[in-house]
Design brief:
D-Maltodextrin-Binding Protein, domain 2; 17 helices; globular
């Protein structure tokens, strides 16, 4: 399926996507691939120009005056190679549909680096369609924060490094709720919230939080625990507790008071708090979820050049530069210390640089379960997708 409103498509930071960008992203025909995948340059330890990167829109620093990307400019100048940075990842399934024909045929997708969310990254790893990272070229990978070092789908980070992360928890307006909303049970059953609650259309986020609320482990999902969470949500739907299931559009409902409390993404709430600082984001008492968008080298990508870029953005100075614009969770140790000097408001924001204690209370959803067609169909039937 293709989720109707992914979190980056309608972020509150103004610009959203231009029509030409959307048309380019939604165009059919896949991504042209010409080179045979071969070793993807795995034994070639010289830089290849241009480095070609596919990423989500609005996901790297931009100079508002020149409209150029300082991080990309800096990399080009340091290594004397060109970079083609393409904002053509608007939905995980949509992008997979573009690259699948070429990779299945053993051809390159003419990308050296792509950025995809955990469960889709896990699919590419299982299919054998990504190259191992050149570890000699990535000494800065040791700066990866502890909480993201060992996802189930790539436990040694052989094939991936996080680009950015975000937490999924509960957001609420205390003026409308009359007090804290800090448990999934309260969100789904409190009569005072009936008809004023929204849940997310992205299955790993909603099902993960509800499974935690039920005392189950979303990092290792079986059909029993999944079915139990479905029934928990169905009860809230049938009772009228849930107003609707949303993509990013929950942010508008929360902002205008149509929703009093909801499942929400931390990065969105950072933006919403700029207009309404009274809004609260909290992890439920039973724990929250964390999702990660990951850098991967598709088969046929140039391993050494892509790995060199990964190493570059894991320099704390560069990571801090990206974070000042992006405002999701930075995966790089040391970036916060840089920003304490440069932008203490960002450095001290727990939604951008959560404490180790907070990160110990979030969970990564089982990537294979997130990609399980039967589970997807059960969830879609529940949400009306």
């Amino acid at each position: 399926m293709s989720d109707p409103m992914t979190r980056r498509q309608l972020i509150e930071r103004g610009a959203v996507l231009s029509l030409p960008m959307l048309l380019a992203a939604c165009g059919g025909g896949g991504i042209e691939g010409g080179r045979q995948t071969g070793t993807g340059g795995a034994t070639d330890r010289t830089l290849r120009s241009p480095l070609v990167i596919s990423n989500w829109p609005l996901y790297i620093d931009i100079d508002e005056e020149t409209k150029k990307r300082p991080t990309i400019q800096h990399f080009q100048e340091r290594y004397d190679i060109a970079v083609r940075y393409i904002e053509d990842v608007n939905d995980n399934d949509e992008f997979f549909a573009k690259i699948q024909p070429s990779l299945q045929a053993g051809q390159s997708v003419d990308r050296d680096l792509i950025v995809l969310t955990d469960w889709m990254a896990g699919r590419l790893v299982r299919l054998g369609w990504v190259e191992p990272i050149d570890r000699e070229a990535t000494p800065n990978a040791t700066n990866l924060v502890q909480a993201l070092r060992s996802p189930g789908w790539d436990p040694d980070r052989t094939y991936s490094l996080p680009w950015q992360s975000g937490m999924t928890g509960i957001a609420y307006n205390p003026e409308l709720t009359g007090g804290p909303v800090d448990t999934v049970e309260q969100l789904l059953t409190d009569p005072a919230l009936r008809g004023k609650v929204t849940l997310l259309t992205e299955m790993p986020d909603t099902m993960g939080l509800v499974m935690l609320g039920n005392g189950d482990d979303p990092s290792s999902v079986d059909s029993g625990a999944f079915g139990k969470a479905i029934e928990t949500i169905r009860g809230a739907v049938d009772s009228g507790q849930i107003r609707q299931f949303t993509g990013n559009d929950y942010s508008g409902l929360l902002a205008n008071g149509s929703a009093a409390a909801c499942f929400a993404w931390s990065g969105d709430v950072v933006q919403l708090q700029a207009d309404n600082p009274d809004l609260v984001f909290t992890l439920p008492q039973t724990g929250g979820m964390i999702w990660t968008d990951n850098m991967l080298i598709p088969k046929g990508g140039h391993v050494f050049t892509a790995s060199t870029f990964m190493n570059f953005v894991y320099d704390p100075e560069i990571a801090a530069q990206i974070e000042e614009y992006v405002n999701f969770i930075c995966p790089v140790e040391g970036a916060r210390e840089v920003l304490l000097e440069r932008d203490p408001d960002i450095a001290n924001n727990q939604l951008i640089f959560p404490s180790e204690e907070t990160l110990a209370d979030v969970h990564i959803f089982d990537a294979e379960a997130a990609d399980n067609q039967e589970f997807k169909e059960q969830f879609q039937a529940l949400t009306g997708a």
